[in-house]
Amino acid sequence: MTQRPLPRGQHGLPAEVVVVSQRNRIIEGTARAVAQHGYAHTTVAHIIALAGVSRTTFYQLFKDKEACFLWCFDALAEAHFHTVAAALAEPAPHPTRLLAALHAYMARVDADAGLASAFIGEAEGATPAIRSAYTSARQRLEDALAQWLKDVRHAHPELPDTGPTTIELVNTAIGGLVVARARSGEPLLPLVPEMAAFVFGAIGAWRWAEHARAMDAPAD
């Protein structure tokens, strides 16, 4: 939903409310501008025109375009990480936890399609600082997945040892799919069973993999 600009002059709203409203409009404006022009060709003029704020307001909140993009990306990545971490921490069987985490993550990316297109789809091709933030966000997800696998190995020592690079390969594959779908706008949620089967197959849990392929994505 497009937010209405705040009334000019004395509106009586607390300063913190004004700042939140302005920041939210700038986030929306940045996402729309980057989606339209790509990060490299987006300018502050594009952002403020779409956000409905002044250049002065923009620079009161952000140093420059890169700082604005980084703030938006970090906020989105943090929300996505906590969605995954919460699902993986649920007291449930290990395959159920992974299915729930994938379902929650892909549902969130699909729901955030406009933001994902701008801030996930463009991050790898932006500046070194933004690429570093993207790498850090991916590493946090990889670490969470590695902890899940550690718990799986503890509970199921009969599974084969797939080596230390397995989770890195899995994370790279899923991350690449998320980026591709963020750019194309195609939904990720229908792919959850196959994603889960891929992960289970990678760790040698073939029974879990066949079960995942045979099921639909969990209902919302």
TrEMBL record:
DNA-binding interval(s): 43-62
Alphabetical keyword list: DNA-binding, Transcription, Transcription regulation
UniProt source species: Ideonella margarita
Xref: PROSITE patterns: HTH_TETR_2
Lineage top rank: taxon: Bacteria
Protein known as: TetR/AcrR family transcriptional regulator
Gene3D superfamilies in the cross-refs: Tetracycline Repressor, domain 2
Domain HTH tetR-type: 20-80
